[in-house]
Structure formats: structure tokens, C-alpha cells
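2024-03-11 09:14:02 DEBUG pipeline.ingest accepted 1 chain
2024-03-11 09:14:02 DEBUG pipeline.ingest length=345
2024-03-11 09:14:03 DEBUG pipeline.predict start
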Amino acid sequence: MLIKDKWKYHVYLWIVVIGLGLITDVGAGGWKALFYAFSLRGLRFDGVFYFTSIVVYYINFTYICPRYLSKKRILYFSLGFVGLLILFAGLRYFLDEVVFKLLTGINNYQGTALDFQYYFFDNITFAIPPILYSSVIFLIFRFIEAQNQIMQLKLDHKKAELSFLKSQISPHFLFNTLNTFYSELIDAQPAVAKDIHKLSDLLRFVTYESGEEFIELKKEIAFIKDYIYFYEKRFENELSLEFELKGEVKHQTIASLVLMHFIENVFKHGVLTDKEDPAKIQIHIQNDSIRISTRNKIQPSVKYMEAGIGVENLKKRLDTIYDQRYELYYAEEGDYFSANLSIPI
């Protein structure tokens, strides 16, 4: 959360600075000094002084501090500090001793005070306060914004926790309802009760298990079987799919839902009702690896390789988890699409 209307705080600061300057003048020279400050001559000298101070203040606040002070690049900030000292002296000299001298015939410094050495070092004492003011204000704003961001992150975290708790209510309610249906139907309609039990397992897997980075292979295989089972129910035994599982499923672990990427693609894009040309899914489990191969006829109007965001996301995930220890192959040949993945287990 950023601080709104920062400019107002800069205005308030300079009102205070100028006000304190007037009070100091009164304390040093009495009311006569105050009257002089509001005379044309006084306004001319003070106007140049405060204009130069504000320019240096603004440059430090908007350019030097964000680029160097906030990034703790102290050397560059120090060089910028010196550059602002030179800028203050040079700008004030140009306005006071060149521009206004040409316009009014009056300059601010007189005699030897105009010597470079005296003029520069005398103006350093005037240049330092606005540079320090802007640096301190910048750090204060930065601190406040950092605190606001921390508070916002804490608030977002609490909202996320609340949303998560709310999200758990619906699944629990759904699972309890399915369990009730299962209990009521197990004796009267065991086939329906069996389907409800499978559906409950499938939803439980998606809700709780799939969020883990790794999962037991037997759980993902069970999920794949249930997934295929419900498609068989949907197609009323017209599903043309050859599913083959070879090897022994023990307690191996794999990246969760990696195999499901290929299963889903078959069901989403493949032709599943051609008895003479069924889709094929093969999962072969070996001692130290697992391979999944799919081949299916592509539905008309579907371009497999053009829907590549899922493929790219899968590659990124495989790179992160398995580095180069996997083999991934996709091919679109005429009306057919094939895929092959081998990963270590």
C-alpha cells in the first residue's frame, strides 16, 4: 500500500522550514528583519535561496535516493551528494550573481565573498539541510510503505487462511453426503453404492492428494483407473480405449498428476468411439523408471500441438523436478497424435 498524496507532505515540510527561517530572522534581527524578508529585496534573495534548495531537495528525493540510497549503493549516493552540493552552489550563483544582477544591478555576495573557494564552501552549509531533509523524508516514506506492505501481506495471508478453511467446508460436506448415500445404498443397490464410493475417492484425490509435489504411484494409478471407469460409464460401454498396465505397483513415488496430463489429453482431444481404431494408453513400470505412452486419432477441428500451454507447463515442471533425467516425446502425424514420457521413480 503506497502513501497517497506525497506532495502534500513535501509542502508541509517546506512551510515549516520557511516558517522556522522567518522565526530565526526575528530572533536575530527583531521585527525589522521580518519586514525586510517581505520586502521586494528580501523576497528576491530568499526566493532564489529557497527555489535552489527545493530543486536540490526534489532531485535528491526523486532520483538520487531511489536509485542509490534505497539500494544501499553508498558510494554512488555519496557522489550524488557531492554533485548536489555543486549544483546548489552553481544554480544559486547563476540566479543571484548573473540573472538577477543583469535584471536589477544588485547581486547577493560582494567583494572577496564572490571568490570561488569562499562562495562554494559557504553555500555547502546551506545545501546540506535540504539534501538531508529529502533523504530523511525518503527513508520515512520507505519505512512506512514497507510496514504497510507487511501488514497487507499479513492481511492477505489471513484472508487466504480463511478462504482455505471455507474451501474445506464444502468438500467435507460433499464427502459426508456421499458417504451417507453409500451407506443407504450398499444393501439395496450395491452397484450404485460402488460407483458413489469410486466417485468419493476420485474427488478426495483431486481435493487433497493432488496438491502434493510427489505422490505414491499406487494412488495415481488408482485415480487413473477410476477416471477411466467413469468415462466408460459415460460412454455406456461404447468407449474405444485400450488401457495396459505392466509392472508391479508398490510404494514408488512420482510427481503428482504427471501421468494424468497424458490421460486427460486422450479423453479431451482423442476419438474414443471408433471400434476399429481405439485409443491406446500404456503404462510400463520398471525397477527405476516408469513410462507412459499414448496414441489416439485426433478429433476433427482439434490441433493438438497448437494447444501447447499445457505441454510447456509440463516441460517446466519436469525440468524443475527431474532436471534432465526424463524423456518426453510428442508427435502429430496426419490424423494421429502420440506421446511418450519416461521418468525415474
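2024-03-11 09:14:41 DEBUG pipeline.report The radius of gyration is 38 Å.
2024-03-11 09:14:41 DEBUG pipeline.predict end
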